[in-house]
TrEMBL record:
NCBIfam families in UniProt: pimt, PRK00312.1
Function field: Catalyzes the methyl esterification of L-isoaspartyl residues in peptides and proteins that result from spontaneous decomposition of normal L-aspartyl and L-asparaginyl residues. It plays a role in the repair and/or degradation of damaged proteins.
Any GO molecular function: protein-L-isoaspartate (D-aspartate) O-methyltransferase activity
Top-level division of the source organism's lineage: Bacteria
HAMAP family attached to this UniProt entry: PIMT
Keywords: Cytoplasm, Methyltransferase, S-adenosyl-L-methionine, Transferase
Organism encoding this protein: Sphingobacterium corticibacter
The encoding gene: pcm
Protein name in the entry: Protein-L-isoaspartate O-methyltransferase
Organism ancestry: Bacteria, Pseudomonadati, Bacteroidota, Sphingobacteriia, Sphingobacteriales
Length: 218
């Protein structure tokens, strides 16, 4: 894929329209909307497809994976209640778009991807765009114990269950946002760690994610 990093008036205008659309669809957190308004989503697309970059749709990024739909990115980001300086683990880097939104919200982001091509691509492209998460390659279904505990964990692929090992990597008061279900559709689930073995679980709307594949997953 040939990348081009030019943010001209047409893309800036399309991005503003996307933010308005997300607000209309129910995203209320102004900080999340501002972050979406800052990240040039077309940078994740080949120039041929720039006209698709600000539609509210998921889009293929190669290796059978997708850049998430902007609404989904905004929805998960809103649920995370990101505060500046939060230490966040993101499982499923994909294109890195969600990663950039979390960085714009002021988080320190640890992100892990199991597909080598995608890992290599984001590791090259994101710093070039001025975004600097901690990149990891491997199976994120086990979390990343080495840099735990985290304030927040976000999973951007559909899991069959909530991996216990992930819950143990949350700080007390920490929050996990994870889509859980079968291969066709998942419920967005938030889990707040309130004590050593105490967790509060809330089940929200239905989404369709690519599967979380790994030791603690499909
Ligand atoms: N939020 C990303 C974006 O905006 O581009 C999209 C993520 S995509 C829907 C889900 C990603 O999770 C895919 O890139 C997939 O390879 C990755 N994935 C699936 N299972 C994983 C695992 N066990 N560990 C790390 N990444 C995984």
């Amino acid at each position: 894929m040939a990348y081009k990093f030019i943010d001209n008036y047409r893309e800036k205008g399309a991005r503003k329209q996307l933010v308005k659309l997300l607000e209309k669809r129910g995203i209320q957190d102004q900080r999340v909307l501002a972050a979406i308004g800052k990240v040039p989503r077309h940078y994740f697309f080949d120039e041929t497809f720039w006209n698709q970059a600000y539609r509210d749709i998921a889009f293929p990024i190669g290796d059978g994976q997708t850049i998430s739909q902007p609404y989904t990115v905004a929805y998960q980001s809103e649920l995370l209640h990101v505060r500046s300086g939060d230490k966040i683990l993101e499982i499923g880097t994909g294109s890195g778009y969600q990663t950039c939104v979390l960085l714009e919200l002021g988080a320190e982001v640890f992100t892990i991807e199991r597909q080598e091509n995608l890992y290599n691509r984001t590791k090259m492209v994101l710093p070039y765009m001025g975004y600097h998460p901690h990149f990891h390659y491997g199976d994120g279904s086990k979390g990343i114990a080495a840099s735990a505990p985290y304030d927040k964990i976000i999973v951007t692929a559909g899991a069959p269950l909530v991996p216990e090992i992930m819950l143990k990597q949350l700080k007390f008061g920490g929050l996990l946002v994870i889509p859980v279900g079968d291969e066709k559709e998942q419920k967005m689930v938030t889990i707040l760690r309130v004590g050593e073995n105490d967790f509060e679980r809330i089940e929200l709307d239905t989404f369709r994610f690519v599967p979380l594949v790994g030791d603690q997953a499909w």
